[in-house]
Amino acid sequence: MSMTKELKEMGCDMDETMERFMDDEEFYVECFRKFVEDRELESLGDLMISRDLEESFTRAHTLKGTLGNLGLIPLFDQMVGIVECLRKGDMLHALQKYQPLMEDWERYKNLL
Protein backbone atom coordinates (compact mmCIF):
# COMPACT_ATOMS: atom_id res chain seq x y z
CA MET A 1 0.00 0.00 0.00
CA SER A 2 1.27 3.47 -0.82
CA MET A 3 2.14 5.91 1.91
CA THR A 4 -0.62 8.32 0.92
CA LYS A 5 -3.22 5.54 1.12
CA GLU A 6 -1.96 4.60 4.57
CA LEU A 7 -2.13 8.25 5.65
CA LYS A 8 -5.67 8.50 4.32
CA GLU A 9 -6.63 5.45 6.39
CA MET A 10 -5.14 7.25 9.43
CA GLY A 11 -7.55 10.16 8.91
CA CYS A 12 -5.35 12.44 6.83
CA ASP A 13 -6.81 14.58 4.05
CA MET A 14 -4.80 13.15 1.21
CA ASP A 15 -7.24 14.04 -1.59
CA GLU A 16 -6.88 17.80 -1.14
CA THR A 17 -3.24 17.46 -0.15
CA MET A 18 -2.30 15.56 -3.28
CA GLU A 19 -3.98 18.27 -5.34
CA ARG A 20 -1.59 20.78 -3.70
CA PHE A 21 1.27 18.44 -4.56
CA MET A 22 0.00 18.12 -8.16
CA ASP A 23 -0.66 14.39 -7.54
CA ASP A 24 3.10 13.82 -7.34
CA GLU A 25 3.34 11.19 -4.61
CA GLU A 26 7.11 10.96 -4.92
CA PHE A 27 7.42 14.69 -4.20
CA TYR A 28 5.00 14.38 -1.28
CA VAL A 29 7.00 11.52 0.24
CA GLU A 30 10.20 13.54 -0.20
CA CYS A 31 8.64 16.50 1.66
CA PHE A 32 7.29 14.20 4.38
CA ARG A 33 10.72 12.57 4.77
CA LYS A 34 12.41 15.96 5.06
CA PHE A 35 9.92 16.99 7.74
CA VAL A 36 10.65 13.80 9.70
CA GLU A 37 14.42 14.18 9.32
CA ASP A 38 14.36 17.85 10.41
CA ARG A 39 12.93 16.76 13.78
CA GLU A 40 10.95 19.99 14.12
CA LEU A 41 8.26 18.38 16.28
CA GLU A 42 10.90 17.07 18.65
CA SER A 43 12.57 20.47 18.90
CA LEU A 44 9.27 22.03 19.94
CA GLY A 45 9.37 19.88 23.06
CA ASP A 46 12.87 21.10 23.86
CA LEU A 47 11.74 24.72 23.53
CA MET A 48 8.74 24.17 25.78
CA ILE A 49 10.81 22.38 28.41
CA SER A 50 13.22 25.33 28.41
CA ARG A 51 10.17 27.57 29.03
CA ASP A 52 10.83 29.73 25.97
CA LEU A 53 7.21 30.78 25.48
CA GLU A 54 7.73 33.15 22.55
CA GLU A 55 9.87 30.77 20.51
CA SER A 56 7.64 27.81 21.44
CA PHE A 57 4.60 29.68 20.13
CA THR A 58 6.38 30.64 16.92
CA ARG A 59 7.58 27.08 16.31
CA ALA A 60 4.20 25.54 17.16
CA HIS A 61 2.41 27.95 14.84
CA THR A 62 4.81 27.14 12.00
CA LEU A 63 4.42 23.42 12.65
CA LYS A 64 0.65 23.78 12.57
CA GLY A 65 0.97 25.16 9.05
CA THR A 66 3.35 22.44 7.95
CA LEU A 67 1.13 19.69 9.33
CA GLY A 68 -1.82 21.25 7.53
CA ASN A 69 0.08 21.51 4.25
CA LEU A 70 1.08 17.87 4.52
CA GLY A 71 -2.55 16.95 5.18
CA LEU A 72 -1.74 15.37 8.55
CA ILE A 73 -5.07 16.49 9.98
CA PRO A 74 -5.08 14.40 13.19
CA LEU A 75 -1.70 15.89 14.14
CA PHE A 76 -2.75 19.33 12.89
CA ASP A 77 -5.78 19.25 15.18
CA GLN A 78 -3.58 18.37 18.15
CA MET A 79 -1.16 21.18 17.26
CA VAL A 80 -4.03 23.68 17.18
CA GLY A 81 -4.61 22.89 20.86
CA ILE A 82 -0.93 23.41 21.66
CA VAL A 83 -0.82 26.71 19.77
CA GLU A 84 -3.88 27.99 21.61
CA CYS A 85 -2.38 27.08 25.00
CA LEU A 86 0.85 28.85 24.09
CA ARG A 87 -1.06 31.87 22.79
CA LYS A 88 -2.57 32.17 26.29
CA GLY A 89 0.83 31.66 27.93
CA ASP A 90 -0.25 28.28 29.35
CA MET A 91 2.94 26.25 29.02
CA LEU A 92 1.74 23.52 31.41
CA HIS A 93 -1.29 22.58 29.32
CA ALA A 94 0.73 22.92 26.11
CA LEU A 95 3.21 20.37 27.46
CA GLN A 96 0.35 18.09 28.50
CA LYS A 97 -1.01 18.19 24.94
CA TYR A 98 2.45 17.71 23.44
CA GLN A 99 3.00 14.21 24.87
CA PRO A 100 0.02 12.55 23.12
CA LEU A 101 0.98 14.36 19.91
CA MET A 102 4.44 12.82 20.04
CA GLU A 103 3.02 9.38 20.78
CA ASP A 104 0.84 9.66 17.67
CA TRP A 105 3.76 11.09 15.66
CA GLU A 106 5.65 7.81 16.11
CA ARG A 107 3.02 6.03 13.99
CA TYR A 108 3.50 8.54 11.18
CA LYS A 109 7.29 8.38 11.24
CA ASN A 110 7.11 4.60 10.96
CA LEU A 111 5.48 4.92 7.54
CA LEU A 112 8.85 5.78 5.98
What does this protein structure show overall?
This protein has helices at 3-9, 14-20, 25-38, 40-49, 53-69, 73-87, 91-109. It is built from 7 helices and no strands. It has a single domain (3-109), classed as Four Helix Bundle (Hemerythrin (Met), subunit A), CATH 1.20.120.
Terminal CA distance reads 12 Å
Count of discrete structural domains: 1
CATH fold field value: Four Helix Bundle (Hemerythrin (Met), subunit A)
The helix content, as a percent range, equals over 70%
Radius of gyration: 14 Å
| CATH architectural group | Up-down Bundle
CATH class: Mainly Alpha
Strand content: under 5%
Sketch the topology as an H/E string, one letter per element.
Answer: HHHHHHH
Number of beta-strand segments: 0
Global mean pLDDT: 96
* Major sheet details: none
The number of distinct helices, counting runs of at least 4 residues, comes to 7
Overall spatial form: elongated
What is the oligomeric state here?
Answer: single chain
Summary tags:
112 residues; mainly alpha; Four Helix Bundle (Hemerythrin (Met), subunit A)
Short characterization:
The protein has 112 residues and is an all-alpha fold. The chain has helices at 3-9, 14-20, 25-38, 40-49, 53-69, 73-87, 91-109.
Topology, element by element:
Blueprint: H1 3-9, H2 14-20, H3 25-38, H4 40-49, H5 53-69, H6 73-87, H7 91-109
Helix pairs in contact: 4-5, 4-7, 5-6, 6-7
